[in-house]
Design goal:
Length: about 150
């Protein structure tokens, strides 16, 4: 059974996603594999579920996401690490950062662009990386006045 921290809404969403691609027994088998993998990631602190959205620890997915077609992703800081969620548009990334949320972009230039946009065109602060190279600390930008969230890359 799926880890108890995952809501019924999340289970239904994952289930319908799998079943939209496969039918019958294939759907059930693939859903069980996905359910087991998600449970394992959560138990290993490699994933968190927030409001029905699964975020995966950046160190596990960042290099793979750099090869995807999306440029920006929702991000959160939890348990001393950065977790990456669903892909978002540039305008959603700017709005998220302006409102205090965090964003992960697949390159230095894209992260700087988001921070510049969130700062209404002003030169962002950064890049910077705190923690003296400790795990869980990533290069990022802030808006010119450090208001809002982080723009990680």
């Amino acid at each position: 059974m799926l880890h108890s921290t995952i809501s019924d809404k999340t289970r239904r969403g994952v289930s319908s996603s799998f079943c939209a691609l496969f039918k019958g027994e294939q759907c059930l088998a693939l859903f069980a594999i996905g359910e087991a993998l998600l449970s394992h990631l959560i138990a290993a602190s490699a994933a968190v579920v927030i409001a029905g959205v699964t975020y995966t620890v950046a160190s596990k997915v960042a290099s793979k996401l750099r090869n995807k077609s999306y440029d920006h992703y929702a991000a959160v800081i939890r348990k001393g690490d950065v977790y990456i969620g669903n892909p978002i548009s540039y305008s959603a990334a700017v709005a998220r950062m302006k409102s205090g949320g965090d964003v992960w972009s697949k390159s230095y230039s894209l992260a700087a662009k988001v921070a510049r946009g969130a700062g209404n065109g002003r030169t962002p602060v950064g890049p910077e990386r705190h923690g003296n190279g400790k795990p869980g600390y990533y290069w990022h930008f802030h808006t010119y006045n450090r208001s809002g969230g982080h723009s990680f890359y």
